[in-house]
Amino acid sequence: MNWLTNYVRPKIRTLLGQKPVPDNLWVTCPNCSQMIFHEDHRKNLRVCPNCGHHMRLPAKDRLEAMMDAGYATIELPKVPVDPLHFRDQKRYTERLRAARAETGLEDAILVAHGTIGGEKAVAAAFAFDFMGGSMGAAVGEAILAAAQLAVLQEAALVVFTASGGARMQEGAISLMQMPRTVLAVRMVKRAALPYIVVFTDPTAGGVTASFAMLGDVHIAEPGAMIGFAGARVIEQTVREKLPEGFQRAEYLHEHGMVDLVVKRSELKATLARLIGLLTAPRQAAAKRPTAMVLPLLPGGAADEPAAPSPSAPSPAA
Q1: What is the mean pLDDT of residues 31-38?
Q2: Distance (Å, whole) CA 146 – CA 44
């Protein structure tokens, strides 16, 4: 049988051709090094079934997982490209072109409207794979557009953060987005609409220092890094050893900076429940009949219509 195995079978394979095996069939968990079949990895929303490590989820997949079927993304406002003509090792325009080709996105955020578990919502999801989810003028305009749409539709605003902070290639323009996004959040709050922030790994810099810390409810995914400056910079500044798990979701939850730490598989149901609870008073007030207020006479009594006198002739008479 050796001649069949060693000679005939290789010849047949050569004649028929052999399909190449894709390189992305398996994914390695960065936390436990477990090999995960790519289809299981996708169905499990990029969460390791062995150790529960939450890997980064692209913005499109995030919206697909969190929003109900039928949602729609909106076209974001256009902004000037490379207003400072910035160049480091590459031109800023080249970096933008490469990021757009790699991700298929116009910038580091997507905004969609629809429902989450049957509750009306506008969702903004950051794309960390687009220049580290950095916040420039386009992201600031997107947050503002999402807030305006939420007020227009009387819907909750949910933001999924994943960013390294402000975009250095836009200089002071990127820093201006911090107060602009704060004003966008204020617009939603003035309309008495829920504003929920979901921290994903990582959330840092100017995003943390602006709209991300202003939510009515702060939710974090397990193990997410949340902070302003990096841990190494803080250690060098304060000259002290930081505690274990510093700037992680669980640590911030223990110290009151985060309200909930929720697994990705449970996040959609949690968001739907929170939106329902936060919008219930507004819906009840809208259904409540408005009481008629009668003007008061100088004496303080209500100006009620007088009853006809028995001796007075009726209008028919």
Answers
A1: 93
A2: 28
